[in-house]
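Quick one:
INPUT:
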């Protein structure tokens, strides 16, 4: 049997985690001297409140070695193999921590760590693909081979309401030129080769920006994989989220349109008001 595990940056909802029998390994969020576990004892809204009060952005860190060992051991002791997903190695040392944990348990041959080369539900797409295969009895090595092919088909992008969080966090190359007065811009951020890269820059009210961003993807969305599309956001206006979902429904293409809320780590770096439509190419 194969167990599918992901770090918390996959941003899958509780319902999806339960539906696909996935285990989550949380990254850490530091608010000043206080340390929290992503998705366990801190919410994005609490993070934003702390950031506003302290005029700074949070810090995040990789999964803990002991936490990884404990979770891996739980399933290894049941005789299972593990396929474990991490956020892009260009953004975190989490994948390396997972590999070291497997080595400490003398289980490197049974713990297959996948560098997603992505973030948020860009990872989530891959995690669900793996979970479906695991449920049908596919072995771990075959799952990993399938996922390595699928990785290049994930299309993850989003538009941000404020550049402050990304700029301060230094996780998105090319943002320096947008500092100062240009922080009023709403850039599209694409995940390319495991890195966040700024693209088209929008101006105007965020609801108009979001719909312009989504409509520009229409042809690609119509030729995307049909299984699912994610609308993932970090706390957007409800009406805007519903408008995006209705637009996607109007394409009559996807079997499922899944809305998820970005977790603490992703929200810490992207800030409030961020929204992305994430899909996989056919």
């Amino acid at each position: 049997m194969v167990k599918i595990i992901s770090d918390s940056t996959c941003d899958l909802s509780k319902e999806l985690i339960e539906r696909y029998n996935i285990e989550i390994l949380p990254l850490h969020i530091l608010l000043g001297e206080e340390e929290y576990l992503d998705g366990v004892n801190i919410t994005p809204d609490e993070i934003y409140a702390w950031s506003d009060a302290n005029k700074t952005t949070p810090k995040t860190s990789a999964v803990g070695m002991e936490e990884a060992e404990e979770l891996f051991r739980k399933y290894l002791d049941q005789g299972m193999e593990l396929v474990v997903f991490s956020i892009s190695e260009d953004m975190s040392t989490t994948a390396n921590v997972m590999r070291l944990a497997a080595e400490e348990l003398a289980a490197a041959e049974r713990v297959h760590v996948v560098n997603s080369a992505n973030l948020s539900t860009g990872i989530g797409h891959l995690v669900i693909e793996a979970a479906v295969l695991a449920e049908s009895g596919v072995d771990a090595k075959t799952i990993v081979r399938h996922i390595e092919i699928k990785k290049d088909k994930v299309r993850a992008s989003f538009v941000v309401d404020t550049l402050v969080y990304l700029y301060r966090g230094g996780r998105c190359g090319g943002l320096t030129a947008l500092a100062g007065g240009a922080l009023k811009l709403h850039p599209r951020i694409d995940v390319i080769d495991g890195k966040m890269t700024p693209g088209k820059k929008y101006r105007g009210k965020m609801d108009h920006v979001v719909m312009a961003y989504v409509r520009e993807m229409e042809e690609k969305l119509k030729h995307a994989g049909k299984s699912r599309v994610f609308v993932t956001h970090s706390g957007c206006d409800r009406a805007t989220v519903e408008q995006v979902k209705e637009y996607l429904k109007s394409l009559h293409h996807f079997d499922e349109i899944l809305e998820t809320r970005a977790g603490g780590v992703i929200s810490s770096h992207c800030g409030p008001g961020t929204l992305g439509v994430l899909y996989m190419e056919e």
